[in-house]
From TrEMBL:
Residues 19-100 form the 2Fe-2S ferredoxin-type domain. SUPFAM superfamilies: 2Fe-2S ferredoxin-like (SSF54292), 4Fe-4S ferredoxins (SSF54862), FAD/NAD(P)-binding domain (SSF51905). Keywords: Oxidoreductase. It holds the Pfam family Fer2_4. GO terms for molecular function: 2 iron, 2 sulfur cluster binding; oxidoreductase activity. Residues 452-481, 485-516 form the 4Fe-4S ferredoxin-type domain. It comes from the Archaea. InterPro entries: 2Fe-2S-bd_N, 2Fe-2S_ferredoxin-like_sf, 2Fe-2S_ferredoxin-type, 2Fe2S_fd_BS, 4Fe4S_Fe-S-bd, 4Fe4S_Fe_S_CS, BFD-like_2Fe2S-bd_dom, BFD-like_2Fe2S-bd_dom_sf. PANTHER family: ANAEROBIC GLYCEROL-3-PHOSPHATE DEHYDROGENASE SUBUNIT B (PTHR42949:SF3). This is FAD-dependent oxidoreductase.
Amino acid sequence: MTDRRITRHPVLPTNIERKKVSFTFNSKEMFGYENEMISSALIANGIDIFGHHKKDKSPQGIFCANGQCAQCTVIVDGLAVKSCMTPLKEGMKIESLEGLPSLPEDDEPIDLKPVKTIETDVLIIGGGPAGLSAAMELSKYDINVLIVDDKSKLGGKLVLQTHKFFGSIKDSFAGTRGIQIGNILADQINSSQKVDVWLESTAIAVFSDKVVGILKKDQYILVKPKKLLIATGAREKMLVFPGNTLPGVYGAGAFQTLVNRDLVKTSERIFIVGGGNVGLIAGYHAIQAGIEVVGLVEALPRCGGYKVHEDKLRRLGVPIFTSHTILAAHGEERVESITIAEIDENFKPIDGTEKTFDVDTILIAVGLNPVNEFYLKAKEYGFDVWSAGDAKEIAEASAAMFGGKIAGVEIARSLGFTNESIPEEWREKEAILKSHPGKIFEREKPNSTSGVYPIIHCNQEIPCNPCTSVCPKNLIKIEEGGILGIPKFIDTEDKCIGCAQCVAICPGLAITLVDFRNDNENPTITLPCEIFTEVNQGDTLVLVDEDGNELGKFSVNKVRELRKYPATKLVELQVPKEIAWKAMSFKVQNIIAHNVEDKYYGTIIPDDAYVCRCERVTAGEVRKYIRSGVKDMNELKAITRAGLGACGGKTCSSLIERIYREEGYTRGEYKPSSKRPLFVEVPLKNFSSKEEN
């Protein structure tokens, strides 16, 4: 049986004690770990196809790993469940979903009781950085707060982030890994006497009588809050292309969930679509997990994410194709290859530029949509409601923390618990942390060939300054632009001591150290490394510059870690002085394109590509009815069933709106589909109240 467990990782602990359990999938006995998600257990056992669609028998696999779609549905002990949200238990009988499931026989009488309603001062939906930061502000006052989150652990997407965060040490934990930040915030909440936390609890609807329906595990409870904060985060956007529903086409967040949360190696060779921070970081996480990143495409002429993230991929050997798009994913039962092509200024593929690569997984990282339906419906029903984090505006987690703090104080003020005004610097810092990457400056070549000093390879305006905070001699400064400015080493009489703290803390791994003290011609350089699970003295490594250009092979002299910055290895090598200031990292892979298949599609959204994954509705069907005069997406839903599937239109609605715009309609000329509760599907039996244990 295939075992895809990650047993070695440069950052994450892999020797976690977990209870092993047995289960069956389609009558075959398999093993997993108790309370891991069923989807992760199946993928760890080599199962990528969870069933076949009732309409066209197409293979179905995991896509979002976040409960937002229904691609991963399986039958467990006779009931259809989302495998990405259902914990594994000993002895489970799991079957693939083939067509429509039969209704189970259930003659057990149900003792119906009135549904319990509880009241609270503030209900926060979402236990990520925004929700937790808001709760911490509210806990400073005598305010009863309830946080509900559908996961088994607080932290939101922070629990997936192995990289160190940007921003400032003082305000947003800069230089600390996302997984550690999640633990810090969760510990603060758990130590509070005024904050109650419901985990594995899903908000399923808001109602006009100002109550919120919560499924607390399998107990349905109505919560009546005085104030409501929506901090539900975001869901990933999808692209429409032939093969977009094949197993192996993941959202980047799903990939990170499997690899970083569940320690499951999903793939051998991946391709990434999208050059924002999410895509760039996912590529880095893949390499950390021992997965080959075959390439990344970005439709714009330049990647939209931080240059330091892009540089990390380039120097590790990942080809980045800007002004390119995906044309198609190929495969019968799962992804086998991808075809990309260059695009012109109108985003149309250029004939003759197609390239095809062997891959088994395609990560879609083309942006996020706010999970804001709870907020919009609550506003419609007259709740006192706020939103924060990605549910309000898509930005970095560091900005979400400030947004949560601001919302927390605003709610406390509205309840009359404080008259304090919100510090203006909070709003300023939130705005800065939301900033898009700024101008790129030309890097200056250092002149000194004596002493020891850092080389700062970061030359783009981004909100980050931990290197200026840790230098014991205060030799790294940002002279202009505040936290968005470019840090520089100031060579003064108070000389650098070569402590390498700036190298170890840098979130972009964009600082190296050059030491001429023992040899003016062949200095010792210190490079940060978070890729190899093990690097030893005497190992030969290929050094590269920030663009991934090879500088030669060199032997490792020494490897060390600073106690304050574990898992960032400081690798020392001796190199000629002419390349000492260029060297940034080590090459780990070489990629070759293969002409597997020649497929060319002349439009970005071809007619035969699926827009609605749940009901298998193509772009061509949608276009046909739009061209016939259908201007109401609710009517379009009734005709085609696009949006009527298990995900409730979460994935396809924005794609259908895009087709309206491609057909010449502007916003206001067509009617968007109505969002109606329930926002999450729930087994009917859970609406019968049960006594709490």
